[in-house]
Amino acid sequence: MLAGIALSPKLWFPLHRLYPTAPAANWLAIGPQWIDALLSIVMIAALLAGERFWRVALVVLAVLVLRDQSRLQPWAWEYALLLIGVMSPGIRTCRSILIALYLWSGIQKLNVTFATQTWADVTSGHLPASTWILIPLGEMAIALALIWPRTRRMAMFAAIALHLSILIALVASHENSVVWPWNVVMAALVFVLFRSDSRQQTADSGSGGRTMEFALVAIAGVLPILSLFNCWDAYLSGALYSGNTEQAVLIVSPGVVRHLPDVIARNTWQESAPLFIDLNRWSFDELNVPAYPADRVFKAVGAEVCATYADNGTLQILGRPNAVDGARTSTTIPCTELAYEARGLASPALRNRHLASAAERFR
């Protein structure tokens, strides 16, 4: 967790940051940016202070995520679940969380976009395109093999080899350095949690501990099913580097581009019309993490960009691709309506259209 924070400093210490925050509710973002920096310092201190203060760290992390949902990165989510598992239910729960992550990570990658685009981007074309299938099938096989003691050791070594190969590919392509330590940690976690067939738990925590165990297993292993129906966030369902996430851009005019700050301008497509700000590239550039792929986050970020730089622009959200042909649905929201959309309200123009439609039906 500390390595992830160190590699994405502006995500946690947003002083002089241009990429907008996406609070869960507007009132949660009240106050200057140094509040987030102070909260991050408290969280780091609580993590370092030992087990007695880990609950404090989790509470502060929850507050930080509520103030900016971009912080709900897959690695931070997994670490939080494992920390809860370590504190109460025990080793078996941590194993279940890891197995669920491998299983869903493989399932999410079974799509044509991962096969034709994401895999080529990650490997920079150094591996044959047909090798993409080894990743999702390998992750799913590791998950299943980790369940049974007879195949556990073989799965453990396979997982370590998988993470080492992914790490080499990411380093070679200079992709997303914030997940480099995550791959090291995943390999270490598999070794620590599965090297022994012992079923020993950290403690008998009673019915409360069993309830927490069931809750964590449901969150990690069951709720991701809802992501297939867009009812649960992709990044809480093992979808990082899966090609199976939403994307968003903000279409702007040439006049707007000339007045954009450098960090935004260099992440704006200007080769041909339409010109657009790529929110994902901007997030990578400034925060060193991908843009959080959820409608509500894109709308919150887009509304802030519109209000600050491009009041005549249009936010375009591309839905999750079809697994078979990669086709995406597209939703466009003009800046004039985006502030209302970000708050879950209907804009005056949209309300008028609904009223006119209702009047027509009445007639």
Task: Label this structure with key terms.
five-stranded antiparallel β-sheet, 17 helices
Structure, briefly:
This protein is an alpha+beta fold.
Largest sheet: 5 strands, antiparallel
Uncertain residue segments: 200-204
Structural class: alpha+beta
Strand content: 5-15%
Which percent range fits the helix content?
55-70%
Instruction: Indicate how many domains the architecture comprises.
Output: 2
Give the strand line-up of the largest sheet.
2-3-1-4-5
- If you average the pLDDT, what whole number results? 90
Total number of beta strands: 5
Can you give a write-up of this model?
- This protein is an alpha+beta fold and 363 residues long.
- The chain has two domains: 2-236, no CATH class; 247-362, no CATH class.
- The protein contains 17 helices and five strands.
- The chain has helices at residues 2-7, 9-12, 34-49, 54-67, 74-87, 91-108, 112-123, 134-147, 149-173, 180-194, 206-222, 254-257, 262-265, 279-287, 295-308, 335-342, 348-362, and strands at 247-252, 268-269, 275-278, 314-318, 330-334.
- It has a five-stranded antiparallel beta sheet.
- Helix 6 (91-108) runs parallel beside helix 11.
- The longest helix is centred in the middle third of the chain and has 25 residues, at 149-173.
- It is globular.
- It starts with a helix and ends with a helix.
